[in-house]
């Protein structure tokens, strides 16, 4: 038997270190899953992987130290406090059991988050962030989204296997140390034992605190510490998803992010007014200006088609020599088409507010809250002009608070899953696009009113889990490609049928994506996610490609002007028929982007890093093109600052 006065204390410290590093090993396994499931188009650059993984250990260490801090404090103090007792080892044996539960529960959750992050990264080209908490309010729809996709089951299986293996090893480890404590024989203690254990505790607590800080430098660990090369993927690889969620939540409910708070509000407002070429008419609403419409399409109906996840890049994708989107490609020859248009964000709720009301979201914050802000925009001004406003969606109108948000903001009629035949619901998002379009045509054909109407159609089939009709099984190599072909066909069929109806011949059709898709690209911010097609189709409009930059925020002012409706514009959007913008600005969860179609500037609020790219090249040109970088930075920062201020101060709402 062992007969050492510090035996119990040393075994406790050894257990804490063993459990801690076992947990770190499994967090690194999660990072390996992120790597293997998100291999960049140019393959794995093995020379960058080791450093990215080592940086990842630093981020994992921070999270792990927070978890280990309480067991470390409790067990070491308990070991010292009972050192003089002959029953010390029995007390510590009992204490190891709840500590094992603590590790098992928290690290089980962390492993699950780590594997979920691998799948999330495939969709958003970035780690989990605070906005995922917004989905918790829609448990049923979110569950359908997750479990309706077969690929998600694979990731769930990986998570279960890793968690099971971790728990098994943790149990064996705990049992081994509990048994080793039985080898203890008490003996008389001296001051040296207490001195040694006290010094050891101070050193151990210091290491834990240092790990929680994440750095020995002046500043604690930040996301930007993960950046070490010119390849965006490997710069992101080291970041722990839980760390990313925490950092994105730090300013989660603030109206103005810290990165923009340093910009003087009045200076930004004057800059925006200068860029938009107007002088404020109302000091209480300094962004509002009167617009005199020049259009000749007065009294026409408006049909707005939101195309789910339809990146402009999809128009250039082929399968076996055939285009995935033949209709949308052909429509460019018979419409007003913007070739350099950008979504305001990367979520459907962002696109809804951007197109209908003209505002850009606040990074990862959901913009359609339960207690919604009030807006004017397209529905408000059309309603005042005598239009009947309505929306058609495929599924549950409660998702993303669409039902309350639209009703609060001038769209009183919503057709949804509640109005459809239940037999045609294919997944948790409801019916497929073609069914909704057919229902919409029947509904509009049956209208008895002589009033013009505004109708929005939100498609969803191009959002996983995909349900691909059998006739499209040979239209792509994967379901992700096949569903694009289906979505294109559904829109085309609707347009051809609608344009032959009496109301369709008197309608302005607007086709726009809610956002793009995370496709392979060499940039820090995934540009295809914000790059979208925009079409306006109507008799009397010229057929041309408009190459100047455009934003979703420009759609409402442009349509109102085309319809000959004078209005008060309180957004940063412009009438593209009368004005031309220098840049479009937009956000993803953690990035601000600015582009004119040729140059692309992006800034990360989570890491305080900026980049400038010539579109088509992954080379960072921010130093070679310093003046251009400064110009695009000023434009994006000032525009977003004023945009968020307008929402925060209620400049968006109609006069009471």
Structural account:
It is a single chain. The chain contains 18 helices and 19 strands. By secondary structure, the chain is an alpha/beta fold. The longest helix is centred in the N-terminal third of the chain and has 37 residues, at 88-124. It folds into two domains: 7-249, no CATH class; 258-279 and 288-649, Alkaline Phosphatase, subunit A. The strands form five sheets. Strands 2, 5, 6, 7, 10, 11, 12, 13 and 14 form a nine-stranded mixed β-sheet that branches. Strands 16-17-18-19 form a four-stranded antiparallel β-sheet, covered by helices on one side.
Mean pLDDT: 90
Beta content? 5-15%
Report Rg. 29 Å
Distance between the termini: 85 Å
| Annotation field: number of helices | 18
| Structure classification | alpha/beta
The CATH architecture of the largest domain comes to 3-Layer(aba) Sandwich
Offer a few descriptive terms:
alpha/beta; 656 residues; 19 strands; Alkaline Phosphatase, subunit A; nine-stranded mixed sheet
Short structural summary:
This protein has 18 helices and 19 strands.
Summarize the SSE layout with pairings:
Blueprint: H1 7-37, H2 49-81, H3 88-124, H4 139-147, H5 150-181, H6 191-213, H7 232-237, H8 241-249, H9 258-261, H10 265-275, E1 289-291, E2 301-307, E3 318-319, E4 322-323, H11 326-331, E5 336-342, H12 348-357, H13 377-384, E6 388-393, H14 402-408, E7 413-415, E8 425-427, E9 430-431, H15 433-445, E10 453-458, H16 479-498, E11 507-513, E12 531-537, E13 544-546, E14 550-551, H17 555-562, E15 567-569, E16 584-587, E17 591-595, E18 599-604, E19 609-614, H18 626-649
Parallel strand pairs: 2-10, 2-11, 5-13, 5-14, 6-7, 6-10
Antiparallel strand pairs: 1-15, 3-4, 5-12, 8-9, 11-12, 16-17, 17-18, 18-19
């Amino acid at each position: 038997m062992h007969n050492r006065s510090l035996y119990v204390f040393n075994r406790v410290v050894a257990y804490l270190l063993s459990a801690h590093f076992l947990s770190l090993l499994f967090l690194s396994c999660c990072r390996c899953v992120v790597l293997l499931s998100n291999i960049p188009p140019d393959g794995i650059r093995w020379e960058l992987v080791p450093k990215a993984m080592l940086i990842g250990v630093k981020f994992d260490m921070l999270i792990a130290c927070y978890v280990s801090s309480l067991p470390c404090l409790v067990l070491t103090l308990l070991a010292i406090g009972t050192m003089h007792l002959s029953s010390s080892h029995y007390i510590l044996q009992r204490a190891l059991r709840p500590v094992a539960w603590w590790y098992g529960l928290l690290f089980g959750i962390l492993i699950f988050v780590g594997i979920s992050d691998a799948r999330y990264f495939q969709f958003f080209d970035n780690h989990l962030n605070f906005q995922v908490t917004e989905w918790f309010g829609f448990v049923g729809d979110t569950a359908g989204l997750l479990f309706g996709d077969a690929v998600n089951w694979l990731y769930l299986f990986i998570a279960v296997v890793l968690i099971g293996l971790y728990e098994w090893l943790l149990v064996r480890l705990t049992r081994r140390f509990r048994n080793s404590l039985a080898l203890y024989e008490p003996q008389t203690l001296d001051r040296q034992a207490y001195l040694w254990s006290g010094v050891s505790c101070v050193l151990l607590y210091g290491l834990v605190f240092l790990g929680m800080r994440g750095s020995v430098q002046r500043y604690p660990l930040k996301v930007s510490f993960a950046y070490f090369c010119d390849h965006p993927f490997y710069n992101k690889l080291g970041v722990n998803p839980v760390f990313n969620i925490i950092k994105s939540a730090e300013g989660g409910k603030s109206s103005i992010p810290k990165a923009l708070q340093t910009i003087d509000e009045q200076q930004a407002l004057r800059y925006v007014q200068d860029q938009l070429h107007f002088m404020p008419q109302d000091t209480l609403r300094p962004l509002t200006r009167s617009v005199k419409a020049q259009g000749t399409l007065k009294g026409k109906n408006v049909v707005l088609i939101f195309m789910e996840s339809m990146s402009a890049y999809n128009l250039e994708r082929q399968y076996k020599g055939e285009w995935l989107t033949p209709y949308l490609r052909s429509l460019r020859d018979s419409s007003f088409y913007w070739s350099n248009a950008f979504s305001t964000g990367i979520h459907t709720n962002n696109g809804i507010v951007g197109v209908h009301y003209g505002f850009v979201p606040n990074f990862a914050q959901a913009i359609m809250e339960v207690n919604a802000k009030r807006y004017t925009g397209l529905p408000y001004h059309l309603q005042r002009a005598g239009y009947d406003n309505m929306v058609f969606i495929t599924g549950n109108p409660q998702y993303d608070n669409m039902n309350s948000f639209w009703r609060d903001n001038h769209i009183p009629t919503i057709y949804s899953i509640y109005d459809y035949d239940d037999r045609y619901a294919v997944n948790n998002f409801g019916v497929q696009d073609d069914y909704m379009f057919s229902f919409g045509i029947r509904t509009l054909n049956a209208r008895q009113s002589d009033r013009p109407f505004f109708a929005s159609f939100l498609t969803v089939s191009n959002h996983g889990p995909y349900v691909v009709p059998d006739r499209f099984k040979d239209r792509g190599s994967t379901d992700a490609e096949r569903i694009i072909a289906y979505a294109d066909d559904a829109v085309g069929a609707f347009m051809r049928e609608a344009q032959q109806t009496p109301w369709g011949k008197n309608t302005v059709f607007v086709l726009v994506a809610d956002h793009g898709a995370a496709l392979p690209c060499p940039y820090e911010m995934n540009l295809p996610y914000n790059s979208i097609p925009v079409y306006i189709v109507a008799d009397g409009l010229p057929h041309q490609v408009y190459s100047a930059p455009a934003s979703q925020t420009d759609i409402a002012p442009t349509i109102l002007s085309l319809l000959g409706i004078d209005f008060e514009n309180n957004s940063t959007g412009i009438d593209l028929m009368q004005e031309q913008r220098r840049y479009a600005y937009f956000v993803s969860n953690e990035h601000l982007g600015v582009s004119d179609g040729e140059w692309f500037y992006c800034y990360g609020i989570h890491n305080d890093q900026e980049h400038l790219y010539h579109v088509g090249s992954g080379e960072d040109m921010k130093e070679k093109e310093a003046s251009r970088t400064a110009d695009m930075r000023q434009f994006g920062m000032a525009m977003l600052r004023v945009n968020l201020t307008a929402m925060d101060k209620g400049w968006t709402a109609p006069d009471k």
